[in-house]
Structure formats: C-alpha cells, structure tokens
Amino acid sequence: MNRKQIFSKTAKKILNTALSMAIILTMLTLFMMPVKVSGAETAVRPTFQPISVSVKGEGLSVSWKKVTGAVTYDVYRSYSRTTGFKCIKKGVTARSFLDKKVKSGKKAYYKVRAAAAKDRLLCYSKPVPGIIYRVYIETGHGTGIDGRWDPGCLWNGYQEAKIMPAICRYTAAYLKNKGVYVYTDAYTGNNRNLKWTLNQLKTLDVSVFLNVHCDYQYAPSGTLGLYRTAKQKKLAECLNKGVHKHVNIKNRGLQYRTDLATLNETKNCVACLFETGGIKADNTLLRTKYVVYGRGLARGVCYYLGIEW
Question: In this model, does residue 214 exceed pLDDT 50?
C-alpha cells in the first residue's frame, strides 16, 4: 500500500468519526431543546420535587413546588403506599390542598399529578405519608339542648360542671402541642351537654371521645375509668396511667358499665367516661391542680394513640 492510499484511508476514518460525532451532538441538542407548552417553555421531561404533608387544623395539608409547564394539579390519596390511590381533588391551580376528610388515626399517602393544558400529563410526585389524630373532649354536664343549666354533682356550693372545664382546657392544650386536633366545649363555658355532643359526633371522624366528670359527694377519693368494650378498657387504662404519672391521687381502678350513653352510643370512635375524683374527697385537688391534671389526661390519650410523649 503506497503513501497515497494510506493517507486516503486515514482521511476516511477521520471523516467517518467526525460525521458520527456530529450526528450524536445533533441528537443530544434536539433532545435537550425546550418545547412550547401553553405558551411557556418547559423541559421535555419535567419532574416533581418531593411534596410535603403536614397537620393543619382538622386536616392534612399537602403542598408542593411548581412544576415547569404545569397548569393544574390533581391530588390523590390512599391508605396504602403502593395501591388504591383515588383522586380527591382535581384541577387545583394553587400549590397546596387541605384534606379535611382524611380518616383520623390512619396513615394516609398522597401523591400529586401535574398536568399541562388540556389535562396533558406531565408527571406524578412520589407518595408521601401523613397522619392526623382528632379527639373530642366533652366537659361533664353544662348547658342542655333545652338551654337549661345542668350542674352535675354538687357539694358545699361547688358544681361539677364548673370545676371540669379548667381540666379539659389544659387537656386540650397539651394535646394540641402534640399535633392532635381537639373538639371541645371547654372553651365555650361548657355549653354543650352530652346529648348535643353525641349528635355532633355522628358527623365527625375522631379517634377518641373523652367524657370528663367528677364523682358525687359520697364517692371515695380517686380516679375511676368507666368502660364497656375491650378498646374502651384499654383507653381507660391509658388514662389512669397518664394521670397517675402527674397527679398524686388514689386509683379506684376501672369499672365495667353497660348503662351509659357515652359508652353505648359512640360507635365510630373509642370512648371513656373518666371520673377525675370525688367532688368532696378530691375537691381542692380538682380545683387547684387542673394544669397537671390536664397534662396527665393528655398523656393518657397519647399513650392510647401511640403518640410519643
């Protein structure tokens, strides 16, 4: 092979290599070029940054960052990480959504679908979990549905219905600090009696219903948790345990009852009627130690729900 032939062959190799490189570079350039979507430029393969789920009020707030090219977002929820996702809100134009219908005490998973104009799919986020606990604290007795005042137990001028609200307010406050959403009449002057509350409960989704009382004047000193079902018994045990971590008071244990509306008419949650003490035997403690008592009840609720204290 002479020098001219060698040169020609080498030149062809260089030319073929250069041509191959040019083709590859052209393909990469075309792949990376932006395209028009609804008048805005976006990458061909938009991606979702991780979404966030947090407790807000009585629901879970799902929030996300803008996806380039997205016009609307659809929010999906499932109680399984991998299957069963259902769209709970379609066409969201904001970058957050508050889910008030999520079940209390059950871990939910959320993912968000980003869509361009004409509902064209861009991408989905990865699923992210969240959980909310809702609790109802009913202050014993108070204003009835007919507007009349029911004082509950009486002794020496003291009324059960006026002693219990302070304990319930601090129970609610400590639970709120743990991220629990609380329904209660403790902040409104004990203006909703049990019958009204049980009717309202039928429209709510709560994990625990706590009915807070003190016992009559001839009752001995000490706490007493009333229950009917196995789950109610477990709640009563947890409440007793929580209270006795903080309050120096006798423990009368638990009592099985089948005649109480609190225990019989609360089908959609776990309930307990909790006697905080005797209106006579524990009067001073109930009137003056309401802060630590509220903390103890809140701790007991957290024990039951599995919330770290």
Answer: yes
Angle at 229 between CA 225 and CA 234, to 5 degrees: 55
DSSP reduced 3-state for 268:
coil
| E-only strand ranges, the chain | 35-37, 40-42, 52-56, 59-63, 72-78, 86-92, 96-99, 108-115, 121-124, 128-130, 134-139, 142-143, 149-150, 154-155, 158-159, 181-184, 208-215, 223-227, 251-256, 270-278
CA distance 108 to 76: 10
Report the alpha-carbon distance of residue 132 to residue 206 in Å, rounded: 10
pLDDT at 39: 46
pLDDT tens profile 224-240 = 999 999 999 999 999 99
What's the start-to-end Cα distance of the chain, in Å? Answer: 88
Give mean pLDDT, residues 198-219. Answer: 96
Domains of the chain: 41-130 (2.60.40.10), 134-305 (3.40.630.40)
Q: Give yes or no for a contact between 57 and 81, defined as CB atoms under 8 angstroms apart.
A: no
